[in-house]
Design brief:
The chain has a four-stranded antiparallel beta sheet with strand order 1-2-4-3. It is globular. By secondary structure, the chain is of the alpha+beta class.
Amino acid sequence: MKKLFNVTLIFTILIFAFSCSDTENNILEDESINKVIKSKEELNKGVFQKIFTLSDFERYAIDKNSIVSKLRAETKSEFIKSMEFRDGIITTANYVVIESELSSIDNEEFWLLFGMSKLAYEDYKEYKCTSPHNCQKMSSYICLTGC
């Protein structure tokens, strides 16, 4: 009887220990997600996104005063093909094609249209939006504010 009690007690302790660690991991994961969202908001403080959709991008592409109009047609086409959307908002795109064609000042102006400050651009390039609020390391891509 004593052995059965000891086994039951050990089993109960193990169940309790594992159930607590899952809860703790979920809390830590939620805190981590909130920190990423908050840091992204801080990096973009004072920046107003103007391009949310493909239609917005195309409007800027035909505007002769826009930085987008400085891009070659092939570059615009390649960039458009790399864009991914969620709920109609751009979440990720290939930044390398833009960076290779524009000066650093023009590149900064380009990404401001997407709501990305210079600091945010540097922090979120080489990441791709893979699911809501989840940017994973991937060269050539940038994780945009729509993620």
